[in-house]
Here is the input.
Amino acid sequence: MFDGNKHYLSRLNKARRKRNQRFDPRYAILLLGAFLLVGIVIVGAQALKKPVSGKAAASPAEARSNGTGAASFKGQPKTLSPEEEAARKEAQEKQAVIDSYSNLGIVQVSGYLNIRETPSIDGKITGKLSGDGACEILSTEGDWSHITSGGVEGYISNQYLLTGAEAKLKAGELVKKRAIVTADNLNIRQEPALDPGNVIGQALLGERYVVVSQKEGWIQIEEGWISADYANVDWALNEGRKLDKKAMAINQYNNLVISKVNNYLNVREEPKPDGKIIGKMTSKAGGEILETLDGWYKIKSGPIIGYITSDPQYTATGQEARDIAMETASLRAVINTDVLNVRTEPSTDAKVWTQIVKDERYPVLAQLDGWVEIELDSIDEEDGSTADKAYISTRDNNVDVRYALNEAIKFSPAEIAASNAASRRSKIVNYALQFVGNPYVWGGTSLTKGADCSGFTMKVMQNFGVSLPHYSGAQAKMGKAVKSSEMRPGDLIFYANSSGTVNHVALYIGNGQIVHAASRKSGIKISAWNYRSPVAIRNVLGD
Here is the structure.
């Protein structure tokens, strides 16, 4: 039987249970309040971490670099990129250059500053320091600083010198990769190739050049290319340089005198016209005036100390002498050893075909790295063919290649002896010497207008009734052989090419010297008899 009251109560109870299972809005309000409270706490904590300056927080990369990142907090070493590491190393190397100077000075001029031998505006100039060049200050003397820079020591004016902290700060901008020359002379070339035709300049020992690039065996500098075998590349400041080569040749003289004669100026033992002749100054040769006397200069020129006329017709001094010297100073190979091998090619594997001695200064034809080509003497081949090239090594400091003036050579006229034979030989020598300074002309036979070596000896002997062929090889077969220990003035001395063929002849004048038509550059001149190795000596006079 349906019970209405019971059914009603059952439905009421179900409705109450459903209502109790629904979400009460009051709970939502409570949860929202809790979330807001947590947010306020977090925002407050972040605000406390911000820098007082208001700058943005460092990025992770910045935090690593300045030590504030997580790695730093954990005590781990910071990590640099390859670029950062290279920059750090470069900065350290540059600073090491600056620190290598105990008392750094930086020159502040628009051109260059002279380095002088003494602390005076009149002091002899020994080198130059270009603007921004660095030096080591050794001491200060009033308005001058005693410095060393690039192998040059001397004095510079304090007026143009930065020192102390200013110098170090300036130096930081000036340290660059530079090629520092390690050879006495190094060719600067237009292209990176060992071609004598592309030489455009010379670099000297210790000079520094900014490096543009490098390739195998070569360094490109702003001026051209140099061999990497004779230069070290490193971070460096620019430093001083020795004087221009021609200026160096002239500045070695404090009181320069130049001979103005066409051939030779006699150097005498005493200051009088009949004083004994002890030497001869070649045309435009230089000397140092030691003393000025009435009508005479006491001079030192080469190995000779003696007297020459002070007549301005024959000698030049002052600016005139300097002007002549600048025009005539030429590149010479000055030999520093008693005997030096001459080779046919610039290689130690090439044949040694003669030897030369230090009594001579040899004209330089070309410079190669480690070698120099010199002019020995004339070409006297029957067919006029080119003579052998002559190369000498500069690697062992046996040769000083520099601009130089001619200087006096030792010379004493042959004594006129009592015997007719000796008298004849003396006359031959004195006759030959009057043509010294005249030109060399290949194939020529004129003692005044030009002769080659065999033409010269042929014409000299012809004046004394001796007939000789016009070819050195044929002259070497005339007369009879003579030992070097027995040779006398008037004998002929012969020299050969690399094949052993005679190609040059000279007339012995005594005292270990010869007179010969040497070359187009030298003309008829006096040399040491063994200026290169003789191959034969002949007596063609028949006595």
In short: The CA atoms of residues 84 and 296 lie 74 Å apart. The chain has a mean pLDDT of 82. Residues 25-49 form the longest helix (25 residues). The two ends are 184 Å apart (CA to CA).
